[in-house]
Amino acid sequence: TQPLLQVKNLKQYFPIKGGFFGATVNHVKAVDDISFDVHEGETVSIVGESGCGKSTTGRSILRLEHPTAGEVRFQDRDMVSLTRSELRRTRKDLQIIFQDPYASINPRQTVADVLMEALDIQNIVPRAQRRERALSLLETVGLGTYQIDRYPHEFSGGQRQRIGIARALAVNPKLIICDEAVSALDVSIQAQILNLLKQLQRDFKLTYIFISHDLGVVRHISDRIIVMYLGKIVEIADKKSLFEQPQHPYTQALLSSIPTYDPKTKTERIPLRGEIPSPIDPPQGCRFHTRCPYAQELCREEEPQLLPMENLQAGHETACHFAGELPERN
Ligand code: SF4
Ligand code: MG
User: Which pTM does this prediction carry?
Assistant: First the structure.
């Protein structure tokens, strides 16, 4: 079947102005030629350290940023060329939840205001029924209807994230992008919110893109995982295949830093040396070579392509010259 979302050769460069005349002197290559599909009902996670381009990818899909190049097709509609009003209509199908819903909620608005505003923007529920709809949304996300007239500061972090989810759900979206949606929460609250998202996915046939710096967090919710480094996809695979047979040294390093990652099979921890290089002037060849324990001459000269791994599950792709030849690290 046709994917719900197709991202093809997406680039997102941000100009850096400088000099006396404010001319563009360089670019931050936040996302640098990535392609992937998302199927209906799937949860695809995008994982990597901060600055790898994962949030920018989410924002570009929603057209919160206009892509520098490439294609984003949602239900076979070309998102990049949508006009303002077409974009507004499409927004009801594509929603985003951020790390801190409080940051995007007006502190003087009650929960009712927040939810009814979301319904107003898309104008999908008759005015007289909006409060009723807001009440049922609260129940859907596990809050009490008695909480409808409360203000954001009266809620805990986990409850505020439930309000953020209710706001996203208000317009009956097909795809929700969760950008570090549980990162600020305690581990036990994280689990509750992830369970809620899972249940909502079943109930409303939702598709998720889950953006996180933490592979451990996305482990249970993901069907497939995309690992990004400095604007590029370095590995993409089914969750099981990625966790059991990680191929890219960067994926292996991320996995080995998860404290709870299966200690029985875990070998030594692979330290990530140094900082992520600047996305303004990424390293030549393999962008990971400055931090890779296996880097060789070829890695500094030639950029590895994202290629299927012959002996692994279909769809497992890695961008490393020596994928499959490196020591087993799972
Ligand atoms: Fe490491 Fe070379 Fe593979 Fe890049 S291509 S991940 S530097 S071994
Ligand atoms: Mg981010």
Answer: 0.93
